[in-house]
Structure formats: structure tokens, C-alpha cells
From TrEMBL:
NCBIfam families noted in UniProt: PrpD_hiGCgrampos
Catalytic reaction equation(s): (2S,3S)-2-methylcitrate = 2-methyl-cis-aconitate + H2O; citrate = D-threo-isocitrate
InterPro entries cross-referenced by the UniProt entry: 2-Methylcitrate_Dehydratase, MmgE/PrpD_sf, MmgE/PrpD_sf_1, MmgE/PrpD_sf_2, MmgE_PrpD, MmgE_PrpD_C, MmgE_PrpD_N
Subunit structure: Monomer.
Main enzyme class: lyase
E.C. code: 4.2.1.3, 4.2.1.79
MmgE/PrpD N-terminal domain ranges (all copies): 19-262
Protein's recorded name: Aconitate hydratase
Gene Ontology BP, a term: propionate metabolic process
Native organism: Rhodococcus spelaei
Listed pathway(s): Organic acid metabolism; propanoate degradation; Carbohydrate metabolism; tricarboxylic acid cycle; isocitrate from oxaloacetate: step 1/2
Family: Belongs to the PrpD family.
Length: 500
């Protein structure tokens, strides 16, 4: 990997285009390096993973609304939308599928200087691949780039510190991935990356307080903007530049300011794009920093015994976990039993309480209003708090995979005065965890979430196509979707009509 120092530049300063971060990203996207077999296999895993969570969310309101908007934009050749037949304008297909994938917060993750769900790259890149009649090999190359760029930006540039939503790294990565997919030239990719970043910077209020359905729409919006940015760039339209380094650019006014410098790692010329292998998926439908605490709670149940005897629980954890999903957020909504699913998903106190009581976690049952409003759950929930521990914060930011951790140390004080302590650094499903996810687990997750949604024969067809992506010829990528019966779609709530 080559490290690129990135900082604000004065308008009068000598700063050639070839030194812009957007140009460096475009160079990576246009480097015709081979894709390692391990990367290709992991791309397949993540396509299956995305389809899993999309199936489970298909009848939810937000997903149904996004699908309805896409249906209003049919197009030939176009791209497919999960659950229905026909083809649609690729930016709208990316939009609908992006919401379906993101709705349950249940797909892959990468955490470093910032947060990310790099599987959010798949809907826009796949939609363009289907529309443009590309092959499975082209798709794999494009997705390798999308994952690489987003993960490398997340390694280096912290957005949340400045209250900028993490999808600001997704717009550029998806645009770069589409550039690789289509074999575009450096100048075109450069302009598309700049446009995609410019149009996808927004505040983190979408993940603060009463969290709304926009949390699912935000990455879909970034993917849609990336598709549109590539379209404009291909037509010769330019972007604000230098978009990151300009005197009035992203770093100067949205991030660290005129004196900040970021060291962005990117593959060198001829170096394979392997970043997808550093990411990890979720076993549980909850914010990633809740994955290890859920497993820890399940492990603690036997040691604690009667949960009524708990006086307090303190989860000692990283700054990120404490401030974003813990009591350090100072969000009263994180203790509100009538809060939205999205808000409960960002309350590690609620999640730890339910996991302790149930010994399991379910993408629907664990968030049901009746579950959140149980008096014994509310009582336990309010006895749980978080505290920042510098050592957990250090491990969170460590670049050593053997040290990097997203877990917590639980200190359980019983009413008798007895104290029970246990900790878990990484989730069981993490590549270094007790039960790492492999192809078998990705397929099992798909089967579980597709049950009563996708007919068994259709499940088989989709899994077969997904596991042979590299063999799909130009124009055959329409197989990478699934259809469901009208009865399944009828489970969606009755929706008001919008503009389209």
C-alpha cells in the first residue's frame, strides 16, 4: 500500500491534478490488476449476504416505498429490483435495493477511523453492471474496487468526529467501482468521484436522537448519486476540484480544517485490491459494536443466574461504542421503550438487556414493541450503562488485527454485592472469532432470512447463480436477484402515493 498525505491547499498553491486524492483513487480504479481468488470468493459471500437481509426486509415500509419509487421508472435494458420482475432505470434500482439491503442493519461492516458498511457498494455497482450488460468477471472487478476505496478512506479519514455521516466515503467508492466495472478512463472516474463526494456529504443527525428510516435511505441515496455522477462524467461534465483538498473543500470546512492532514492508504500500481478481506459481516441484526456484547450477554447468562438479582451493569468499552450507542450519547431515546427499531438498534443498553434475558437475538422479535415494553426488560435496561475505557479505545483504533477489538468488559454487580466480570473483544462470527463466518454460514443466513419469503426453488436458483458469478457472461447478471409471490409483497403496509 502507498500512503498519500492529504491536506487543504490554498487556491494560489501549486497543486497539480495528478496529486489530488480523487485522481489517486481514479488511478486505482483504472489499474487493470487481477482479482485474487480469495477476493472473488468473498465478493460472492457478500452478494449472498446482501440478498439475505434484503429478503428479510422486503415487506417493511421503507423498502416497499423505495421499491414503489423504482417501479415508477421502468427502463430497458435497465436493472433488477429485489422481489419483483421487470427492469428499471439503474439509479432507481440501486436506490430500491440499497434500502432493502440497509434496512435491518444486518450486512457487512468495517470499522477504523470511521464506520462503514461496504456492502452498500453492491447495489449501485450491480445495477450498472446489469444495465450495461457486463459480465460476472466485470462485476467482481468493480466490487473489488468499491470495497477497496471505501475501506481505505475509512482507515484514514474520520467523518463522525465532525458529525458528517459515513456515507460520504460511500459515494466516491461506488463511483470508483462503477468506473472499474465499465473500464472508464482516469479523467472520467476522477470527475465522477468528485461529484459523488460533493453530493453525498450530510450530517450525522440521521443517526442521532430519534433515528428515522432515513438511516436506511442514506446509503441508497449515496449509491444513486454515484450512478448519476458517473453518467454525468461520461457526458463530459466536471466536478468541484480539488474536492477534498480545496480551500473551500471537504477537509477545510467539513472535516479537520486547514491544518488537518490525513494519510490515506491506497494500493500501488499493480497491487491487488484486497480490502474486502478485512471486512466482516454480522451474525446479529444490530449495530456492529453490539455484536460482541450480544455474544457476551449470552455467555454471561449462566454465570448470573437470576437476572432479578442484578443491581447494575457497566459495559466498559471504546469511545465509539460509548458515544454512539451507549450512555455517552446522552440520548434519552436510547432508554425509551416506545422508540423506533432504528433507535433501539443504536442502544447497546437495550440490546444487552434483551440478549441477557432471551439468550438469543432475532431481527424482528427482539425489536418488537411488545418485547421492548416488557416491564422486566425496562427495569433491567435502566440498570445498564456504558463507560469509556482508554484501553478499549486504543484497541478499537489498533491496526494490528490481533489487537483490534469492538467489544466490551461487562461488570455485573448483584444486589448481594457480588461482582461478576467478563469480557469479549470480538464477535463470535468475526474472522478471528470463536465461530468465523464462511460460505456455509453465509448460505445458512440466507436460508434462514429467506424462509417464508422466497420459494425454495427460487432460493436454490439464486444461490447457484451467485456461486458461479465468475462464469456469468455479458448480459447474464439479471440472474443475481430473486422474485417472490404477490402474497409476500402483500404483507407490506398500505402505502400512501407519492409524486411518481
Amino acid at each position: 500500500m502507498k500512503i498519500h498525505p492529504v491536506r487543504t491547499r490554498r487556491s494560489a498553491e501549486e497543486f497539480p491534478q495528478s496529486e489530488h486524492l480523487a485522481w489517486k483513487i481514479a488511478e486505482v480504479a483504472t489499474d487493470p490488476v487481477d482479482v485474487p481468488e480469495a477476493v472473488s470468493e468473498m465478493v460472492i459471500n457478500r452478494i449472498i449476504d446482501n440478498a439475505s437481509v434484503a429478503a428479510a426486509s422486503l415487506a417493511r415500509r421503507s423498502v416497499s416505498n423505495a421499491r414503489a419509487q423504482a417501479k415508477a421508472h421502468p427502463h430497458t435494458p435497465g436493472a433488477t429490483v429485489f422481489g419483483i420482475g421487470g427492469t428499471f432505470s439503474p439509479e432507481w434500482a440501486a436506490w430500491a435495493n440499497g434500502v432493502a439491503v440497509r434496512e435491518l442493519d444486518f450486512h457487512d461492516t468495517f470499522l477504523a477511523a470511521d464506520y462503514s458498511h461496504p456492502g452498500d457498494n453492491i447495489p449501485p455497482i450491480l445495477a450498472v453492471a446489469q444495465h450495461a450488460g457486463r459480465s460476472g468477471a466485470d462485476l467482481i472487478r468493480g466490487l473489488a474496487t468499491g470495497y477497496e476505496i471505501q475501506i481505505d478512506l475509512v482507515r484514514a479519514i474520520c467523518l463522525h468526529e465532525h458529525k458528517i455521516d459515513h456515507v460520504a466515503h460511500l459515494g466516491p467508492s461506488a463511483a470508483a467501482g462503477i468506473g472499474t466495472l465499465l473500464g472508464l478512463d482516469i479523467e472520467t472516474v476522477y470527475q465522477a468521484v468528485g461529484q459523488a463526494l460533493h453530493t453525498t456529504t450530510a450530517t450525522r443527525q440521521s443517526r442521532k436522537g430519534a433515528i428515522s428510516s432515513w438511516k436506511a435511505y442514506a446509503p441508497a441515496f449515496a449509491g444513486k448519486m454515484a450512478v448519476e455522477a458517473v453518467d454525468r462524467a461520461m457526458r463530459g461534465e466536471g466536478a468541484p476540484s480539488p474536492i477534498w483538498e480545496g480551500e473551500d473543500g471537504v477537509i477545510a470546512w467539513l472535516l479537520g480544517g486547514a491544518t488537518a492532514e490525513y494519510d490515506v492508504p491506497l494500493p500501488g500500481v499493480g497491487e491487488a485490491k484486497r480490502a474486502i478481506l478485512d471486512s466482516y459481516t454480522k451474525e446479529h441484526s444490530a449495530e456492529y459494536q453490539s455484536q460482541a456484547p450480544i455474544d457476551l450477554a449470552r455467555r454471561l447468562r449462566g454465570r448470573i443466574g437470576d437476572l432479578e438479582q442484578i443491581a447494575s451493569i457497566v459495559l466498559h468499552t471504546s469511545h465509539h461504542t460509548h458515544v454512539v450507542i451507549g450512555t455517552g450519547s446522552n440520548d434519552p431515546q436510547k432508554f425509551d421503550p416506545t422508540a423506533s427499531r432504528e433507535t433501539l438498534d443504536h442502544s447497546v443498553m437495550y440490546i444487552f438487556a434483551v440478549a441477557l434475558q432471551d439468550g438469543t437475538w432475532h431481527h424482528e422479535h427482539s425489536y418488537a414493541p411488545s418485547r421492548a415494553q416488557r416491564p422486566d426488560t425496562i427495569d433491567l435496561w435502566n440498570r445498564i450503562s456504558t463507560a469509556e475505557d482508554p484501553e478499549w479505545t486504543r484497541r478499537y483504533h489498533s491496526t494490528d488485527p490481533d489487537e483490534k477489538a469492538f467489544g466490551a468488559r461487562a461488570v455485573v454487580t448483584l444486589k448481594s454485592g457480588e461482582v461478576i466480570v467478563d469480557e469479549l473483544a470480538i464477535a463470535d462470527a468475526h474472522p478471528l472469532g470463536a465461530r468465523p463466518f464462511a460460505r456455509e454460514q453465509y448460505i445458512a443466513k440466507f436460508r434462514t432470512l429467506a424462509e417464508d419469503v422466497i420459494a425454495p426453488a427460487e432460493q436454490d436458483r439464486f444461490l447457484d447463480a451467485s456461486q458461479h458469478i465468475a462464469d456469468l457472461k455479458a448480459g447474464e447478471l439479471g440472474q443475481l436477484t430473486f422474485s417472490v409471490s404477490e402474497n409476500v409483497l402483500a404483507r407490506a403496509p398500505k402505502l400512501p402515493k407519492g409524486l411518481f
